[in-house]
Write a structure and sequence with these properties.
mainly beta; 7-stranded antiparallel sheet; disordered N terminus; 504 residues; single chain
C-alpha cells in the first residue's frame, strides 16, 4: 500500500519497528509504499536487485542538474540549466529507472534566458519547476519563474512574479491542496510564497535583513518549514523559520557563531517530528569550511550537530532521512574551490557517519540534490566537467545501499557518439582495478596505453581498429606499485591523457 497524500500513517512491523509515513516532495508514492511494506515484513532488504549507474546529460556547453526527484515509474526528473540548447535556458531531463534518457526540454521566456533551481512531481502526473528568468531584457535583472508541465515535459502554464524582481526561487514543493510553496531571494531578502494550483499568488512573506531561502517543506501540521541563510555585516548564519498554513511565523531560530560563515543546504521533517538540516560550517576567513548537519526537535531547538571532513571546501547541499531512520547527505568535498568532488554520505540516526563515497575526476564535480530510491539505493544529481560531452554536464549517479556503483555505465550518453572522448576512470583512487571508458565517433585505429610518472609504458590495453560507439576497458593494477599513473587514448589524430591514482 502507499502512504496517503495527506495525514500521517503509522505502521508497525512484526518485530516491533514503527514508522510514521509523511508524503514529502522527496518521496514518491512508490517509495512510501516500499518503505511501509518493508517495515511490515520486518526486513530492511529491498525485494529486487538495486540498479546502479552513472550518466551525463546535456550538450557541448555548460549544463547543471540542481534538483532531483524519483518519479512514480521509478525513473528520475532533474531540473537545472543549460547553455547547450539555443542559449542559456531552464532545463528538464526525464530518465528511466536505469538512467536512460526519455526526454529533455529547454525553456526560455520568449527569447530571454532562464534557469531552474527546483523540481517537484505533481499529483496529475506532470511536473513543476521553479527558478529564475530575465525580467528586464538585456539587463541581467531576474525574477522568480514557475513552470507547470505535463508528463511529457510540455508546458501547460508559466508564471513570473514581479514582486521578486532582483530575485529568484531556490526551492519548490507541491502542497496538499494542489498549490505550491516556494522560497528564494528578493532584493537580498529571504521570501516565502504560497500559490494556488494555477501558480497564482495566495500569500507572500518577506523577512527583513540580508538573506536567501534554500529549502522549504510542508510539515505534518499543514504549516511550512523554511531554511536559508542570513548575513549581518560580515557574519553569515543559518536562518530557520516555522510558518503556519497562512504564512504566519510560529518561531524562528538562527544557527552560527561569530565569524562562522555558513551556507544553508536543505531541511526535512523527520519521523520523530523534528527536523534535519544540512549546510556548511566555516571558522572565519581562510579557515575553510566543513559539511554540517543539525538535528532539532519539533520547535527548532538543537538536539545535535555534526561536522564532516577536515576544513577545506565542503558543503552539505542536500539531505534526506533514510528508511532505517538515519540520513543520507550529498554535496561537495575538496581542498579548495578549484578542486571539487561530489560526496555521498550515510549516517545513523545520531548523525555519525556510517560510510562516505566521493565521485569525480580531475575537474569540478558537485552533488546538489540527493534521494533515497524505492529499491533502497541512493541517487544524486549535480554537475561534472570531468567527463561527459561538454564543459560541464548534468550528472546523475545511482548507487546501491552502500553507495557503490557496481555496473558502471561510465557516464555514457545513450545514442551515437558525436565526438571522440576519453572519460575519467572509475573508481579513482582505485585498488586493484579500475574502468576506463571512451567513445569513438567513427571507425579508427585505437591505442589505449598506461604510463607511470616517468613516462614509461606499463601496459597497452587496446591496440586495434574499432568501430564507432562507446567502449570501456578494465585496468588490473594488481602487479604494479602504489602511485600516480597516466592513461592515454590515441584514436586517429585524437590524443588525450588523464591521470589516475592507485592506492594499495
Amino acid at each position: 500500500f502507499a502512504v496517503p497524500m495527506s495525514g500521517r500513517t503509522a505502521v508497525r512491523s512484526a518485530t516491533g519497528q514503527s514508522f510514521v509515513g509523511l508524503m514529502q516532495h522527496t518521496m514518491s508514492i512508490v517509495e512510501s509504499g516500499f518503505l511501509a511494506d518493508t517495515l511490515l515484513r520486518g526486513t530492511s532488504s529491498p525485494p529486487l536487485p538495486i540498479i546502479t549507474f552513472r550518466q551525463t546529460y546535456g550538450g557541448n556547453a555548460v549544463d547543471v542538474g540542481s534538483s532531483l526527484q524519483q518519479t512514480s515509474d521509478r525513473g528520475f526528473i532533474i531540473a537545472g540549466l543549460s547553455y547547450s540548447f539555443s542559449g542559456l535556458g531552464a532545463y528538464l531531463v526525464k530518465t528511466a529507472e536505469n538512467g536512460t534518457l526519455e526526454w529533455q526540454r529547454s525553456f526560455h521566456r520568449g527569447t530571454l534566458p532562464a534557469g531552474f533551481q527546483a523540481v517537484t512531481s505533481t499529483t496529475d502526473g506532470g511536473y513543476a519547476a521553479a527558478g529564475w528568468t530575465e525580467y528586464v531584457p538585456s539587463t541581467g535583472i531576474i525574477a522568480s519563474y514557475l513552470i507547470k508541465t505535463n508528463a511529457s515535459g510540455d508546458t501547460l502554464w508559466t508564471r513570473v512574479y514581479p514582486f521578486t524582481v532582483h530575485g529568484l526561487a531556490s526551492a519548490l514543493q507541491q502542497t496538499t491542496d494542489g498549490g505550491f510553496i516556494m522560497t528564494g531571494e528578493v532584493n537580498s531578502q529571504l521570501y516565502v510564497m504560497k500559490t494556488n494550483t494555477n501558480g497564482d499568488t495566495t500569500w507572500v512573506r518577506i523577512f527583513p535583513g540580508n538573506g536567501h531561502g534554500t529549502s522549504v517543506q510542508q510539515t505534518s501540521d499543514g504549516g511550512f518549514i523554511v531554511l536559508g541563510w542570513g548575513q549581518d555585516s560580515f557574519i553569515r548564519y543559518l536562518k530557520f523559520v516555522k510558518l503556519d498554513s497562512t504564512g504566519t511565523t510560529q518561531w524562528q531560530k538562527t544557527f552560527g557563531e561569530t565569524n562562522n560563515f555558513s551556507y544553508s543546504g536543505a531541511v526535512r521533517q523527520t519521523i520523530d517530528g523534528g527536523y534535519i538540516i544540512s549546510g556548511d560550517y566555516a571558522a572565519g576567513v581562510g579557515g575553510g569550511s566543513q559539511a554540517y548537519m543539525i538535528k532539532t526537535n519539533a520547535v527548532g531547538d538543537t538536539t545535535w550537530t555534526r561536522k564532516y571532513f577536515p576544513p577545506g571546501y565542503h558543503h552539505g547541499a542536500s539531505v534526506s532521512q533514510t528508511f532505517d531512520g538515519g540520513y543520507i547527505v550529498a554535496g561537495v568535498a575538496g581542498p579548495n574551490v578549484n578542486v571539487q568532488d561530489a560526496f555521498l554520505m550515510k549516517t545513523n540516526e545520531n548523525g555519525d557517519s556510517v560510510w562516505a563515497k566521493t565521485f569525480g575526476g580531475g575537474g569540478q564535480d558537485r552533488a546538489l540534490s540527493v534521494v533515497q530510491t524505492s529499491d533502497g539505493g541512493y541517487a544524486f544529481s549535480g554537475e561534472t566537467n570531468s567527463s561527459g560531452a561538454g564543459l560541464a554536464d548534468v550528472w546523475l549517479v545511482k548507487g546501491d545501499a552502500s553507495g557503490f556503483v557496481t555496473n558502471v555505465r561510465d557516464d555514457q550518453r545513450a545514442g551515437i557518439p558525436t565526438g571522440f572522448e576519453l572519460m575519467q576512470n572509475y573508481p579513482n583512487p582505485f585498488n586493484p582495478s579500475t574502468t576506463i571508458a571512451y567513445s569513438l565517433k567513427n571507425a579508427v585505429h585505437v591505442r589505449l596505453t598506461i604510463f607511470n610518472l616517468l613516462g614509461q609504458e606499463v601496459t597497452t590495453l587496446v591496440n586495434e581498429v574499432q568501430s564507432l560507439g562507446y567502449y570501456k576497458k578494465v585496468f588490473d593494477a594488481g602487479s604494479v606499485a602504489t602511485g600516480v599513473y597516466f592513461y592515454q587514448l590515441k584514436a586517429g589524430d585524437f590524443v588525450e591523457v588523464k591521470k589516475m591514482l592507485l592506492l594499495k
